Structures are given as structure tokens and as C-alpha cells.
Amino acid sequence: MDVRGMIADERRRMADLVESLNAEQLRTRSLCGAWTVKEVVGHLVSAVAASRASALLLLVRSGFNLHKANARLAAQMAVRPAGELADMLRAHAEHPFRPPVVGYPGQLTDLQVHGQDIRRPLGLAHDLQPERLRASLDFLVGGRAVGFVPKQRPAGLRFEAPDVAWSWGDGPLVRGTGEAIMMTLTGRRVALADLSGDGVAELRGRMGR
């Protein structure tokens, strides 16, 4: 399956996940800042379903601060019923949206990371696909993950994820599941507890940067 096919399938899987959650779970705070689970879903939907005009208007009202505009757009989208959000994800599963700079690998990684932003606080198994995890891990350490990982975070460390047969880098060792490494590289400190090796302390010290 090519990357666009992976993205489409991840959107459909996200739709299935959304439909399985109750109201309390949707209100739970995610691992993505102050966003609730439902607001994370709203963010994923807005990337493919929000009109360009509404996105541009919010960007202007946010003083051209992309982070603030994205947060407002996600909150607006999250007002919709969960079932409607799931339907929109399925309807736009094969949308050709390609973010600048990070491209399709960035879109795939965004879906996988945000999926875990939802599942981890709810205690749900991730069931991520090894091929897709490897693609995201390669992207995160490849130097083009602008907005995902500061370049200095993985530099000079050795990462090993035996469960997905993936490794990268030289230096003190950081070892764990591919999911835990992906989440840590993208700044989710909770995943540090799932890692081992003499490089974990150094990685923990870089998490604030």
C-alpha cells in the first residue's frame, strides 16, 4: 500500500474509533496540549473538510498565528456530533491534501500520533501497523519533520524499535516500541516511561527544547 493509501485507511480507522467512544471519553483531555479527544478529531477533520475561506478567515483573526488558527478551527469543528465527524473522515478519506514541506509522510504521521493522543489517555490498544510506524519513524528522524520534531532532539542518539524491526542513529541507546519512540520524538513525555537505555536520560533532558 502506498502512503496515500495508508493515509486513507488511517482516516477510516479513526472514524471507527470515534464512533466507538462515549460522551465521557470524547470529553477526556488528550495528550495534545489542552485539546480534548473530540477536539483532536476536529483537527483531523478540519485538515480535509474545512473550506479554504473559513480557514483563511480564522488565520486572519488569529493574527496569522497558525497554531492559534488551527486550535480555533479544531474547536469549531468539534462542536459537530461525533457521528458526523466520523462520517466526514470517511467521506474525505482519500482527500489528496498534501501539507507543505512535510508532505504525505507528515500527514500519515499526524494521523498516527493523534490517534495515540486519543488512545493512550483512554487506555486503548494502539494496533498500529508496523509498515506505517516505520514510515513515520523514518520521517521523524529524516530532517524534514518541521513542526513535529526539533532537529536536535534525536541527534547523536541511537534508537531501536525491535517490534517493528527499525533502528537509526549512533550514540547512547534509546530502546522501546516503535509507538513509544514515535510519541516521545513528537514531545509526548508520558511515553518516556516505556523506553530504556543509556540515552533515555539525555532524551528526557531535551524534551523541553
Description:
Keywords: Isomerase. It comes from Actinoplanes oblitus. The protein has 209 residues and is mostly helical. The chain has 2 domains: 3-108, no CATH class; 130-206, Nonspecific Lipid-transfer Protein, Chain A. It contains 10 helices and 3 strands; from the N terminus they run ααααααααβββαα.
Would you summarize the structure shown here?
With 209 residues, the protein is mainly α.
Question: Could you give the topology of this structure?
Answer:
Blueprint: H1 3-20, H2 23-27, H3 37-49, H4 52-61, H5 66-77, H6 82-91, H7 103-122, H8 130-141, E1 158-161, E2 166-168, E3 173-175, H9 178-185, H10 200-206
Parallel strand pairs: 1-3
Antiparallel strand pairs: 1-2
Helix pairs in contact: 1-6, 1-7, 3-5, 3-6, 3-7, 4-5, 7-8, 8-9
GO molecular function: isomerase activity
Organism: Actinoplanes oblitus
Domain Mycothiol-dependent maleylpyruvate isomerase metal-binding: 8-94
List the main descriptive attributes of the protein structure presented here.
single chain, 209 residues, mainly alpha, Nonspecific Lipid-transfer Protein, Chain A, 2 domains, 3-stranded mixed β-sheet, 10 helices, 5% strand
